[in-house]
């Protein structure tokens, strides 16, 4: 029996250094103090166990062994062969990849041919139970250190880790049939020749082509094929510009002529809206998946230049589609997100979206993320663009496995994508496929990359395209002939040329071909366009009473609520009995009545279940049983629609994007997002600017999302005061200088023509009506509501059932209804205002005894501006001074918006004077006394009837 001599102290130290960091305890019996004998027998198959065997197999068996943990660091991932995907050329010293590393384990080359029995925890043996050390290392290298780099050992679930090991360690798993190889080649041909065709026809046009990562097309198709095979019927995709046209053509299968006609320099905006550039547009298409012969619906969501902004939108749309199908496990609907490497690492919304992935009300049961890793940003080297080794490291926070793969090895890519789709279906968790590739051209086709990356692009210019490399491989092995390959190319080129000819037909120009969220049947009734009318939004009194009774009760038995909440419920009961509502009860009645009519209601945001101001309490918590809750709103009617109210993560950008996507899926749902304080929407400004304000103009995408933004100057500081109404009004598209024609359908037609609706309701009844109107309108527009804080409990901010029953509706303007309107000839000043300041003005007017001299009119709908009603109000009081009073600073709030519109409707002969706070940089003071002083100052001005005498406008 051969002998293997090692110094005991040195061997113990090696074992400790190697295994201790990974939690291995098996070497403890041979520590320095009780080391093994100076000589010991080496192992023989099936007999005994040597010290070396124990140490080596502790390394091999441990689920955190070095190849599995760090093999990806030395994997050959860069197709160019010049960069390290992890930005580090260091090879871990304990990773045996060459013979010169044997010394780390006190091994000699002769030891490589010794046979070892394989442990049950590894799959590298397949059906074999013993292998030589040389073969063990070769197989580990082949699995973990070649064109695939696996990161998964951070996952704290043994079953999941073993599943991945089996998929990649098992010998022969990456064997493809001739037919599969031919399909892969054909898909590569389509991917590359599509880009070549565009380059030939429109050489001076930007298209953000896929050259250098052509394998992404077969990669996405493999994910879809595999998912379809496992039962998926609907795939929702989001991606940036690079490769978008190719995905539309060869994955979604959009008609090529529809794509080509977008390159026409004489193309005019069709139908409505301004449109957007072709590489931002989306599409929805249902077709047969030719691999599985099953129906598949594919939707590519439109996305602006803000790269990762589409991530939460896709997730929200996916969640909604799953909800409406009753797909609680994500077995019918799934999402796929394509990312760029620099954006994936740099954009915070990626992190926000990942952290929604496992929350009950936001999970989509796993997303397949595909990173197109160009190894460069626009012109920025990755070493200057991220601090993490890989661009994908953010995915580790949710235990998503990360599969790095060399994009110039198509078969490796296809296998990885197949495993990724299977992982998502098996574990309902996110997974990342990192396609390590290159960008053959610059950031776009007009850009010169040699300015900033000369060495990289010298190599790229020499790089053989992946299609040629793969075709040569298949020809060499006899899978295809050169003639067959050339015929495949000629066939697709012919398809492109024929489509190019058809693209000249102007009849095909129709922006609705690019819709990513069609709502079949919504805009028409029996084939005819819907009437441009909105029915009254009031409801029968018995419905109001019933909702009020449920809102003041606990539908579950043996459910103990907080004593403070008992008082709130008794208060609701008392209001219902007296036929009145406050803000919270009005919201309850709006939601409840819509649920009765089959409208799904979803309210989301930070702490919305209780409400930031402890006014809502839509979710009751048992005080004695942990996590036992009750949602009375879901106990209103036997056959009602479901109500979803869910506290979100502490995110605005990600969550608002999610709810926007949710609202895309169906027009027959009221989807609301509430900011904790109105000003917090500024961290979601990208979603507001790129999707909500401009969505219909850019993509003809109707969306009924509702934003609830608490607003009001109450001395609580800048961040807790203003919802920044001036920003929303500045982005409103109604023309301040255009005097409208006041037709019979003016109100609804004006709503149809605007890009969104901005309101600041001063009564609970009007809040009730505007929520119901949002669903009863024959179209969908985003609705921005500045909601109150102090008015939630203001004794005067109450409404009667009489203002909510059948026949009543939303009031765009609430006119003066006191003494002034009964004697208009006595009125000296007409004050227009909106929101909470009305109650300050009424109180001040009463204290000064000016009820007959000053009329106060409330502007409830600010945009689109109610020209007709403003004209009527002003004509009631001919010749009186007109004042606009707001509590916001002059350079904020509403004044800059309303002033030119008053001028348009009234002319320069009757100026409207400004009363409010002086211009300022911050929207509010944090000092209570300063707040009160400024309030008193502008109220004094509002009721000083000589304030504007002698002044010129």
TrEMBL record:
Annotated keywords: Calcium, Glycolysis, Magnesium, Metal-binding, Mitochondrion, Oxidoreductase, Thiamine pyrophosphate, Transit peptide
Family as reported in the entry's similarity comment: Belongs to the alpha-ketoglutarate dehydrogenase family.
Gene: OGDHL
EC number annotated for this UniProt entry: 1.2.4.2
Protein name as annotated: 2-oxoglutarate dehydrogenase-like, mitochondrial
Record SUPFAM superfamilies: Thiamin diphosphate-binding fold (THDP-binding)
Entry GO MF terms: metal ion binding; oxoglutarate dehydrogenase (succinyl-transferring) activity; thiamine pyrophosphate binding
Domain of life of the organism encoding this protein: Eukaryota
InterPro entries cross-referenced by the UniProt entry: 2-oxogl_dehyd_N (IPR032106), 2oxoglutarate_DH_E1 (IPR011603), DH_E1 (IPR001017), KGD_C_sf (IPR042179), ODO-1/KGD_C (IPR031717), THDP-binding (IPR029061), Transketolase-like_Pyr-bd (IPR005475)
Upper classification of the organism: Eukaryota, Metazoa, Chordata, Craniata, Vertebrata
The keyword Phosphoprotein appears for this protein: no
GO biological process: glycolytic process; tricarboxylic acid cycle
Cellular component, GO annotation: mitochondrial matrix; oxoglutarate dehydrogenase complex
PANTHER family: 2-OXOGLUTARATE DEHYDROGENASE (PTHR23152), 2-OXOGLUTARATE DEHYDROGENASE-LIKE, MITOCHONDRIAL (PTHR23152:SF5)
Requisite cofactors: thiamine diphosphate; Mg(2+)
Any Pfam family matching the protein: 2-oxogl_dehyd_N
Domain Transketolase-like pyrimidine-binding: residue ranges: 581-794
UniProt function note: 2-oxoglutarate dehydrogenase (E1-like) component of the 2-oxoglutarate dehydrogenase multienzyme complex (OGDHC) which mediates the decarboxylation of alpha-ketoglutarate in the tricarboxylic acid cycle. The OGDHC complex catalyzes the overall conversion of 2-oxoglutarate to succinyl-CoA and CO(2) while reducing NAD(+) to NADH. The OGDHC complex is mainly active in the mitochondrion. Involved in the inhibition of cell proliferation and in apoptosis.
